[in-house]
Design a protein that fits this description.
By secondary structure, the chain is of the alpha+beta class. The protein is elongated. The protein folds into 2 domains: 4-67, Winged helix-like DNA-binding domain superfamily/Winged helix DNA-binding domain (Arc Repressor Mutant, subunit A); 74-254, 3-Layer(aba) Sandwich (Chorismate lyase). It has helices spanning 4-17, 30-37, 41-53, 80-87, 92-96, 100-105, 125-131, 164-167, 184-190, 210-215; strands spanning 57-60, 64-67, 74-77, 112-122, 138-148, 157-163, 196-206, 224-233, 238-247, 251-254.
């Protein structure tokens, strides 16, 4: 037999799915819901917590509970890297018209709000090993956030590392004011004569940190996908490393492997 809070959750869930409560609608106050269902406030809050965990509602501090608007889905495939490489030789105006976020979401450039920040850091042991440099080597750490302008949270949390002495050949690669760069990282690296030969991606999942859950506006209990991407030039040298955090509630990853014929 269903518990009292489960019956309340069932009723509210049915109303949401039937469209009686549409995305963005505010639920009645907790006091009004207590009166409606004739149950205690703790029982009601259990029901609301269940719906929050399912991603159907969200609590906005100081305002109340709202039906959660579905987030724009992300479909990330491994074919995106060849797509980005092919664009390196396209005219800059053509490259500037769209990027990998638009590629992954189907949105247009004008739909997006983009932010990039650069800073110089010293290579910690783990990153130093990946990039094949000494611990303490000067790196350019780049952080990226891109979001759909009608949504509160970015699609991903990205940290990218380049070896400073390698990219300093083109001073523009040291300045975040030149972002968004038409064509992305592969086009940036091409300006200093680097062609990528392969990209390795390690994918894991874990619970988010409190900061990640807040920034990505994740429902309680939602995992994040952690993607560690290392780009190698045609000579096998690691030239860029990225840590990408993707929200588990709207990310789909598709891997296509073309097999050689016998």
């Amino acid at each position: 037999m269903a518990k009292a809070y489960e019956r309340i959750a069932d009723d509210l869930r049915d109303r949401i799915r039937a469209g009686e409560l549409a995305p963005g609608d505010q639920l009645p106050s907790e006091t009004a819901l207590v009166d409606k269902y004739g149950k205690s406030l703790p029982t009601l809050r259990q029901a609301l917590g269940l719906l929050q965990a399912e991603g159907l509602i969200e609590k906005q501090h100081g305002r109340g509970n709202f039906v959660r608007r579905p987030r724009t889905p992300i479909r990330r495939t491994n074919l995106r890297h060849q797509w980005e490489k092919n664009r390196v030789r396209e005219p800059e105006q053509q490259r500037a018209g769209t990027g990998v976020t638009e590629h992954d979401t189907g949105l247009e450039l004008d739909d997006l709000i983009f932010h990039a920040a650069y800073r110089e850091v010293e290579a910690e042991p783990e990153i130093a090993e990946v990039l094949g440099v000494e611990v303490g080597t000067a790196l350019v750490e780049r952080t990226y956030r891109t979001r759909y302008r009608v949504e509160p949270a970015p699609f991903t949390l990205v940290r990218s590392f380049l070896v400073r002495d390698v990219v300093a050949e083109n001073p523009k690669l040291l300045d975040a004011a030149n972002e968004p760069w038409p064509g992305g990282t592969q086009s940036q690296l091409s300006t200093i004569g680097i062609e990528l030969g392969r990209i390795e991606e390690l994918v894991t999942a874990r619970p988010p940190t409190a900061e990640e859950a807040e920034e990505l506006a994740l429902p309680p209990g939602t995992a994040v996908i952690v993607l560690r991407k290392t780009s190698y030039d045609v000579d096998g040298r690691a030239v860029e490393h990225s840590d990408v955090i993707l929200p588990g509630d709207r990310t789909e990853m598709l891997f296509t492997t073309n097999l050689e014929r016998w």
